[in-house]
Amino acid sequence: MSQEVLKTPLYEKHCELGARFVPFAGYEMPVQYSSVIEEHLAVRKSAGIFDVSHMAPMKLKGPGVLAMLQFLTSNNVDVECGRARYTLVMNESGGVRDDIIVYRESVDTFFCVVNASNAYKIKDYFSEHLRPGDKLEFLRDRICIISVQGPNAWEIVSSVVNNNVGKVKRWWFTRVSYKGTDVMIARTGYTGEDGFEIFVDASVATDLWNELMNAGKKWELVPCGLGARDTLRLEKGFPLYGHELTEERSPVECSLERFVDTNKNFVGKDIIMQHLAEGTSYRIRGLAMKDRGVPREGYTVKTPRGDGIVTSGGYSPVLKKGIALAFIPAEVEEGSTVEIIVRGKAFEATVTAIPFV
Amino acid sequence: MEFPEGLLYTKEHEWVLVENGEATVGITAYAVDQLGDIVYVELPAVGASFKQMETFGVVESVKAVADLYCPLSGEVVEVNEALEEHPEWVNQDPYDKGWMIRIKLHNPDETGALLSAQDYRRYVEEEKSG
């Protein structure tokens, strides 16, 4: 099957900035501009700007939408209007179809952002479950998502949109007007730092990007690619769909039970209740290398309780060592030593609490 | 991108400086550019011997792992131990501070299989456009 490579409306901008691209979920996306480590550290110290327009926003509206989302996902999304919540779209066997953020716009309107790789799967799944009178609008082709992340993100964003977004609390969002368009600004992100995800009409996205870059000069704002996005989320132990989260692994096995609300009914709940009550034999845990070497996805982990596997691995620019998320026997205690097999050689790693930093 | 004259190159993107029966080996500016930030260089012990184009070590960047190929057969007489603490030197200065191993050559005639700076540049251009 041949497919056309998609580009975000900011593609030309990335070329101008010297980005190197990788194909990701059908899109040609910047993986780095200067250096993954430099970009990573800029976000931790001051601020970075990302184009994450490959993510798929969709708007669900109607009297039955709340009940539908409550049933199809694990977390309670019956929140105040203006609030955002991370939740897992479940399957019948207790696995995860996708992890998404749900933004409640009004009593009956919810804005959902799903992973690029699951865009059509979730769109179709939600569409099948819509009740008469409810509507789903797929907005990826019309909306650009610009993410500004880091301790100085609010200074930069508030100076451009002329609105005190600093007052918008973490996991809340607001709407502002920009060049006659409606822009949604959410204090959410995937870096573990303070920051904003800005949902802007594709027609003015480049203008907004340019203004943010200009305003960011004084804060040493750096454009960042998917490389830094991945190392930033890994240091915080955030799961990534297709790596930690899969259709075969439950939220309990992913150590994400805090995003499961057992006070409501939802798809796959019986299995989750069983996992919560009895525990699971394997779990996603953090590993930090004692030796040099970089753990990579798919490497075997040897523990006294049995073998496991690295689900995401890489180098932590802050800790200056290899770190990994791995699916290993749940009984292995924090602080104990395991071995990661790197090209046939055993390297020692410590089972570590997440986040790593 | 700089590919100094006087060095010889492999299609696996190592460079080699041959002098008095010994050779110094590292990776090229193109290899470094492709790999991105290098965070770990695994080098052999002094005394180890390698055949031409045998793997002598591994370089890990944030993004990728790559094998290192020995451009010429020989015995390792020195390794750049400073790279253990400063793997970033390979990024910053691949032809000087970022050198990796020095070998005593077993068979100096093997250099015929290597590329000149000009040929290597052409090869890289083809690989880029390919």
Question: Which structural traits does this protein have?
Answer:
heterodimer; A: about 350 residues; alpha+beta; B: about 130 residues; three-stranded antiparallel beta sheet; about 35% strand
Overall pLDDT of chain B, averaged?
Answer: 96
Q: What's the count of strands of chain B?
A: 9
> Can you tell me the residue ranges of chain A where pLDDT is under 50 for at least 5 consecutive residues?
none
Helix content range of chain B: 10-25%
H/E series of chain B: EEEHEEEEEHHEH
- Work out the largest interface and the residue count of each chain: A-B, 16 and 12 residues
Number of strands of chain A: 19
Q: What pattern of helices and strands is seen along the backbone of chain A? A: HEEHEEHEEEHEEHEEEHEHHEEEEEE
Per DSSP, the total helix count of chain B is 4
Main structural class of chain A: alpha+beta
Overall form of chain B? globular
- Beta-strand content bin of chain A: 25-35%
Report on this structure:
The complex is a heterodimer of chains A (357) and B (130). With 357 residues, chain A is of the alpha+beta class. Chain A is 21% helix and 34% strand. Chain A has helices spanning 11-16, 36-45, 65-72, 119-129, 153-161, 205-216, 226-235, 269-278, and strands at 20-24, 27-32, 48-51, 56-61, 84-90, 96-106, 109-114, 135-138, 143-149, 173-178, 181-186, 195-201, 222-223, 282-289, 300-303, 306-316, 321-329, 337-342, 345-352. In chain A, the strands form four sheets. A six-stranded mixed β-sheet of chain A has the order 10-11-12-9-3-13. Chain A has a six-stranded antiparallel β-barrel with strand order 14-17-16-15-18-19. In chain A, α2 crosses α7. Chain A is globular. The model of chain A has no long low-confidence stretch (mean pLDDT 96). Chain B has 130 residues and is of the alpha+beta class. Helices cover 22% and strands 34% of the residues of chain B. Chain B contains four helices and nine strands, in the order βββαβββββααβα. Chain B has helices at residues 29-35, 82-85, 88-92, 117-129, and strands at 8-9, 14-19, 22-27, 38-42, 49-50, 55-61, 65-69, 74-79, 101-105. In chain B, strands 1-2-3-9-8-5 form a six-stranded antiparallel β-sheet. In chain B, strands 4-6-7 form a three-stranded antiparallel β-sheet. In chain B, β1 and β2 form a beta hairpin. The interface between A and B is medium-sized, with 16 and 12 residues.
